[in-house]
Amino acid sequence: MKKILVTGAMGQIGSELVRKLRETYGTSNVIGSDLWKKEEVEGPFEIVDVTDGKAIYETAKKHQVDTIMHLAALLSAKAESAPQLAWNLNMGGLMNALETARELDLQFFTPSSIGAFGPTTPKKKTPQETIMRPTTMYGVNKVAGELLCDYYYSRYGVDTRGVRYPGLISYLTPPGGGTTDYAVEIFYEAVRAKQYTSYIAEGTYMDMMYMPDALNAIIKLMEADPGRLVHRNAYNISAISVAPEDFARAIRKHIPAFELNYDVDPVRQQIAESWPDNLDSSVAEAEWGFEAAYDIDRMTADMLGKLRVE
Ligand SMILES: NC(=O)c1ccc[n+]([C@@H]2O[C@H](COP(=O)([O-])OP(=O)(O)OC[C@H]3O[C@@H](n4cnc5c(N)ncnc54)[C@H](O)[C@@H]3O)[C@@H](O)[C@H]2O)c1
């Protein structure tokens, strides 16, 4: 992994991943791309619509990259309001990016999600290999995407690798319309108003992870010895299994007056209830040494220390 093209680079993950990759591999070796660009973003960047296969191919060729990190996607809650668009972007974009990887012999990373699981999946310590019958368009895309990546590995030898991310918590770029977005909003509102109204019900557990752990996982997986990777697409990874009231408890250690209320959104609640409480990440630990450094208290202290709310 010496020169990397990142799609969806303006998003919650991409904006931080590009920074991290540039620190590690050098600014000129990381090409950001998206449908749009914030003016202040520096370094090599291309406007690329991933539904245009030729555009991905030509960008990868122009910059002579050896790796694609494909992040452009429509997330769970947004995908549920526009399922056809989600299919076209999530599957069409992935296929285009994989084709470029095949044609140019590139290493390939794309994230799957806890959303790949469904209501019939075991909810606790969800195993690496288990029932995957998601009931959302996003989940359907993620399962199909995992299989497609494995297919490109076994059929064409493309070095595809992926993780099943939990909900990601970060302060640089707001989340893009997922079911776990509340876990970011709660911190912003704690700082701004000392109060948050959660659209996810009390007692609803989901897996979450702080962004630094999520970024380290990508680099560690992509740098791992390919001979050790049996599962490839995609590895369960897990850090913090939490319900809204757990965040409130952790936040009150810093903002004692913080109040948590509930106004449950039935669509996102139903999605949340169809997902696991926490994943078993032992296969990722064994095959490429996955580890998470942040628990809820360490993450909360860091988030509240770094958040700037306008
Ligand atoms: N953030 C999470 O909590 C989380 C959890 C699990 C998995 N993931 C996965 O990680 C990946 C990135 O997620 P994210 O949270 O950064 O998403 P995001 O919504 O924050 O960002 C997605 C980016 O893709 C771009 N995009 C949309 N359509 C495009 C197109 N046609 N061509 C090019 N770019 C396009 C958007 O402009 C946006 O900048 C996705 O595959 C997502 O499913 C995210």
Question: What does the model show?
Answer:
Helix content is 43%, strand content 15%. With 310 residues, it is an alpha/beta fold. The chain folds into 2 domains: 4-166 and 209-236, 3-Layer(aba) Sandwich (Rossmann fold); 168-207 and 239-278 and 286-308, UDP-galactose 4-epimerase, domain 1. The strands form 4 sheets. The protein has a 6-stranded parallel beta sheet. Strands 6-8-12 form a 3-stranded parallel beta sheet. Strand 1 (4-7), helix 1 (12-25) and strand 2 (30-34) form a beta-alpha-beta unit. Helix 4 (83-104) packs parallel to helix 5 and helix 8 (244-252) packs across helix 11 (296-306). The chain is globular and about 55 Å long. The N and C termini lie far apart (38 Å). 47% of the residues are buried. The mean pLDDT is 96.
Assign the CATH superfamily of the largest domain.
NAD(P)-binding Rossmann-like Domain
Query: Helical region count?
Result: 11
Q: Assembly type of the shown chains? A: single chain
CATH class descriptor of the largest domain:
Alpha Beta
Instruction: Estimate the global geometry from the Cα principal axes.
Output: globular
Family: Belongs to the NAD(P)-dependent epimerase/dehydratase family.
Domain NAD-dependent epimerase/dehydratase: 4-237
GO molecular function: L-threonine 3-dehydrogenase activity
Protein name: L-threonine 3-dehydrogenase
